[in-house]
Structure formats: C-alpha cells, structure tokens
C-alpha cells in the first residue's frame, strides 16, 4: 500500500491531470518520460552504481534482491539462481495493475523503462529483459548476471 500511495498513484495522478489540460497526449507522455527517466531512473541508477563500490556487492545485492522479491506483495514471481546469475519472472505486478485499473496502461511503459536505466550499464551486474507486462508481455523476465 505504501508503494502504491507514495510512488505509483502520484505519478498516475500527475499524468491524468496533465491529460485533462490543454496538452496533447504525446506531449504529456514525453513530459512524463523525461521526468521518469531523467529524474527517477537516473537517481536510482546512481544509487545502485554507488552500492557497487561495496566489496562483495554482487553476492550481497543478489541475496537481498531475491529475498525482497520472495517476501513482497508488490508482485507475484518465480525465481531461479546460480552462482553467477539470478532470474525473476514476474507474472503479476502492482505497477501494471494500477496503470491498467486507472486507464493509463501506456504509462506503465515508463515504469518498465526505469528498470532498464536503473540496472543498465552497471559494472558488476548485467541486466537483460526481453518482455514486460507493461509492454504487453505475459510476464516480466528479469535476468541478472555477474560481470
């Protein structure tokens, strides 16, 4: 509920308010994209990149990430992992559900794009994903690997 109230719904509300003004849908989407990528994602990426300086970062981060994913109610997922990789397949996501229920599924693209920036170009962890719920996939298939 905290994530929904503090993170997801305010962005949905901003998007919907701007759509009700005299701006084109494309202009509003581009404004939201700039905010989500340049502000939110850049900050998350910088924070994650700083954490990479901690010795044993990959092992610590993968352990914490998987534990959070196992215990969270933000999404439904399955996991697999090995010594040098871990995968999380999300089949239900609060961000996707909230956008869909509020009639702005296209906004979910931006939440997905934030992940790409957050985990992209890190030095110790690689990240790939070929599909997301937000872009119409049947799941979000996160794959992390040790660099």
Task: Characterise the protein shown here.
The protein is α+β, with helices and mostly antiparallel strands and 147 residues long. It is 57% helix and 19% strand. It contains five helices and four strands. The protein has helices at residues 2-20, 25-51, 57-71, 94-101, 105-119; strands at residues 75-82, 85-93, 125-128, 140-146. Strands 1-2-4-3 form a four-stranded antiparallel beta sheet. β1 (75-82) and β2 form a beta hairpin. α2 packs parallel to α5 (105-119). The chain is globular and about 50 Å long. The model has no long low-confidence stretch (mean pLDDT 96).
**Computed structural class:** alpha+beta
The largest sheet has its strands arranged as: 1-2-4-3
Gyration radius over CA: 16 Å
- The number of helical runs is 5
Order of helices and strands: HHHEEHHEE
Q: What is the molecular shape?
A: globular
Query: What is the strand content?
Result: 15-25%
Beta-strand segment tally = 4
Largest sheet: 4 strands, antiparallel
Helical fraction equals 55-70%
Poorly predicted tracts of residues: none
Distance between the termini: 35 Å
Mean pLDDT over the full residue set:
96
Quickly describe the structure.
The protein is 57% helix and 19% strand. With 147 residues, it is α+β, with helices and mostly antiparallel strands. Strands 1-2-4-3 form a 4-stranded antiparallel β-sheet.
Q: Which key phrases capture this entry?
A:
single chain, 147 residues, 4-stranded antiparallel β-sheet
